Amino acid sequence: MMKNEIGVRRLVEFIWQTGNLHGEIFSSDNTALQGAAIHRQLQKNWDKDCIAEFDLKLPIQIGNQEYIIHGRADGVHQKNNNYDKIIEIKTSSVSFDTISDSKRNLYWAQLKVYAALLMRTCKIDHVELELIYFQTNTNKITHKKSLFTKVEAESFFTKTINILDKWIKLKQKMLLKRNNSIHKLHFPFEQYRPHQRELAAAVYKTVVLHKRLFVEAPTGTGKTISTLFPSIMALGQNKTERIFYLTAKESTRQVAEKSLLKLQKNGLYIHSITLTAKEKIIFEEERDLKDDKNPYFIGYYDRLKPALMDILQNESVITTEIIKKYAKRHLVDPFEFSLDVSLFCDIIISDYNYLFDPLVYLQRFFKDSDKDYSFLIDEAHNLVARSRAMYTAEITSAPLRTLLTKFETIHAPAPNKIRTNLKKLQRHFSKLRERLSDSKQSFLISENYYEKFLKQLQRFNSDAQIWLKQNPDHLLFQEILDYYFAIHAFIKINSFYNKTFRTKIEIDNENTVVKTFCLNPSSLLHQSLKKGKSAILFSATLSPISYYQDVLGGKKESLSYTLSSPFNIENLGIFTTPKLNVTYRFRSQNESKIIAALSAMVHAKSGNYLVFLPSYNFLKQIHTAFLCANPAFKTICQSTDMDAKAKKTFLDNFTKRPIEKVVGFAVLGGSFAEGIDLKGNSLSGAAIITVGLPAFNEETAELEHFFDQTNKNGFEYTYQLPGFNNVLQAGGRVIRGMNDTGVILLLDQRFNTARYTRYFPAHWQHYRQSYSIKQLEEQLSFFWTHVNPNF
After folding, report:
1. Which helix (H) or strand (E) covers residue 454, if one does?
2. Average pLDDT, stretch 91-102?
3. Apex CA 236: angle with CA 231 and CA 238, to 5°?
4. Would strands 272-274 and 347-351 be described as parallel, antiparallel, or unpaired?
5. Helix or strand or coil: residue 321?
6. Residues 622, 611: contact at Cβ < 8 Å?
7. 321 in the Ramachandran plot: left (φ > 0), alpha (ψ -120 to 50) or beta?
8. 113, 190, 394, 453: which has the highest count of C-beta atoms within 10 A?
């Protein structure tokens, strides 16, 4: 429950919901918008004595704290200066007769609570409750009425509050224990690392002052604990209500969990939860079951409260494994259970999607803006590409012919509306294809969306949703459902369409593909960040910060902070090659120079090395040439089809410290160029070949043009800076601890130009230029002798 104010609907759903869990396969967004429009339409026809959107509030005392029960009745009728009727409108596409008893009971419970609030506020002895049910696919309206006395209202409300009382007191007890533990909490390490205290102070001020902070904190700063610890201190002072720790990768979520466990050992009492994607957390035995056959769905709400009480009283740092343990014990679906548990947690660790993705964000937290939440956004450089992907959707004509053919051949009732809409949609695709053909181009990019096409998609989905609900056993159910989801995503993304969006038409294997993509979702990220009061976006590689502020929802008043590396810069050797041209045209003819530079690196000191290349094809080419020149070396290569086990095997070659040293070849920007921690002797150096520019295509060309038109440097924003971030991340694999030593070879003459050197971090500014292989060999020898006199 939210502190101070409790909404009637949330109250009723928590206290009185019973029965089965029904997986909502249809988005509630369009349903909510449609429902709001129907509400307004019905309210407009009421007589003048009926007051729409009637506000109801009642203060209550639980424990030592006052709460406001607050709701808004759809309508309250007034007669002779007295209120005699409360109206609640509900909308759905299914008939009233088919609604479950548990659902109907919830509708009436909401009306009963409204009645209790009204009767406590006004001196009336009874009131009529009217439930108006509007069936959206038929426009049929069902009216249900019931007389409710003050005695009945008091009895129902008292019973409701008595149940709530137990949960509020649990929450109060947890809050008091949490705050007391935070007041006694100390930083979990004996001393701060260099610059760590300053970072923690900056984070604390950002949370308390409700600001937005962009931080570049190099490897070794201790970013996770330096952001979590001060945020928790602010939480203990009631300066923020809840902390969301958002990451791009599972590995960083695990680091956050470990940090909380460390604080827990130091006396912290706090409830945190790590949210996991549905497909990764549900039990195998429920994966292919329908809702009405799933034992973890059947009776879910009857078992939910005991399960919640059990886990909250016995666990604090709640991981995926813990959720599954309690879900199994209480026979509840683990994914839905994790979401219900999260409402009682102080810290929520999750993927970026749960805040930023318009298709899957957590509505229970983020439906409204400006809550007192704090967002800690780890590895924020990843959010640039991720956010563009979140606001990209495409729809293809591919399923149309297949579906229409199957409707003609299968022996099952074929839905006329669905078939008609599919044919209309096919004609719209044909018109777009003709438009592309007339342009004499292989693709067509427009600043506007195609309105008639979009409306036909909406018509299809409106009818498809009704049909899918009515025909769950139809032979084509799954295929229609899959196309419905694809269209829904396309419609949803297009609802955000503004000057930063583009629509592309192209042909793929004879199918017409329409794609909506966002060039710069910064304003949309800004709106997401406004769902909280403070945000800290941090990464080891956030240079230049002005660029990331531009593209990640930074405001004019947003703050920035760049920390120096805590490591001794003399332990890292940086070498550039001003005479080595590895642009696409010259790669093959300079292959021998690349191999000579790599050979110089691996022969200078026995150790493990990584070589990063811009593509798999170039990786294979250089790997083959390297082996020919260095047949005695053990080598391993990243491949396109590596699963988690294969990736672990790749890394084990470094971390298990075998007698035989290894040279690994990996792709720049790939899974081994970021987020891996090879400390000590696990890695002696890395070579980075090319500046890592993203591939040129029609969409990146459009992106470059867009930034040029908005007074930015289009080439920098589109190609140079995203590519250079991959370079910085790859280079960051080398020095991971205070006593680590290693080298980085930047094998591309472009690294030597001012365009790049001005963006070198401070701990790279001591780079050395190697004009020849001989000079590189001498510099490497000098470096290793200097950092290790016994070398």
Report:
1. helix 451-470
2. 88
3. 95
4. parallel
5. helix
6. yes
7. alpha
8. 113
Hey, what are 604's tokens? 């200078």
Query: At 65, which helix (H) or strand (E)?
Result: strand 65-79
For residue 407, what pLDDT is reported? 81
Q: Rounded to whole angstroms, how far apart are CA atoms 577 and 748?
A: 6
- The Cα 790–Cα 690 span in angstroms is 34
Distance of alpha carbon 113 from alpha carbon 746, whole angstroms: 68
In the CATH hierarchy, which top-level class contains the domain 5-167? Answer: alpha beta
* Residue among 344, 405, 417 nearest 168 (CA): 344
Query: For 144-171, how does the pLDDT look when each residue is reduced to its tens digit (9 = 90+)?
Result: 999 999 999 999 999 999 999 999 999 9
Q: How far apart are CA 51 and CA 84, in angstroms?
A: 12
230/204 Cα distance (integer angstroms): 5
**pLDDT at position 472:** 84
**Homologous superfamily of domain range 191-245+352-391+521-566:** P-loop containing nucleotide triphosphate hydrolases (3.40.50.300)
Beta pairing class for 242-247 and 212-216: unpaired
* 569-787 has CATH 3.40.50.300 classification: yes
Cα 207 to its chain centre, rounded Å, is 21
Would you state the structure tokens that stand for residue 733, as one six-digit string?
A: 């694999």
* Same CATH fold assignment for domains 191-245+352-391+521-566 and 569-787: yes
Q: 305-328 as b/e, with b when 16 or more CB fall inside 10 Å?
A: bebbeebbeebbbbbbebbbebbe
Structure tokens at 16: 């009185």
- State the DSSP H helix or E strand holding residue 408, giving kind and residue range, or none if neither: helix 398-409
For residues 288 and 426, give the distance between their C-alpha atoms in angstroms, rounded to a whole number: 32
Strands (E), 279-352: 317-318, 347-351
Domain boundaries, the chain: 5-167, 191-245+352-391+521-566, 271-345, 396-517, 569-787
Q: How far is CA 446 from CA 36, 199, 449, 551, 704, in A?
A: 33, 44, 7, 22, 15
Q: Is residue 544 reached through a cis peptide bond, with omega within 30 degrees of 0 on the bond before it?
A: yes
Q: What is the CA radius of gyration of the chain?
A: 30
Please state, in angstroms and rounded to a whole number, the distance separating the CA atoms of residues 25 and 578: 57
Per residue in 656-704, pLDDT (tens digit) is 665 678 999 999 999 999 989 998 889 999 999 999 999 999 999 999 9
Close Cβ partners of 335 (under 8 Å, ≥ 6 residues apart) = 276, 278, 281, 282
CB 231 within 8 A of CB 203: yes
Q: What is the DSSP letter of 574?
A: E
> Would you call 539 helix, strand, or coil by DSSP?
strand
Phi–psi pair at 426, nearest 5 degrees: -60, -40
Assigned token pair, 502: 């583009």
Structure tokens at 89: 């409108």
Closest among 650, 609, 564, 576 to 733, alpha carbons compared:
609
Mean pLDDT of 210-230: 95
By C-alpha distance, which of 351, 642, 704, 646 is closest to 502? 704
Tokens representing 671 are 């899974």
Q: By the 8 A CB rule, do 688 and 746 touch?
A: yes
The two three-digit tokens of residue 220, written as one number: 């070794």
- The Cα 614–Cα 668 span in angstroms is 5
Contact predicate 635/662, CB 8 Å: yes
Confirm whether pTM is higher than 0.90.
Answer: yes
Instruction: Determine phi and psi for 309, rounding to 5 degrees.
Output: -60, -40
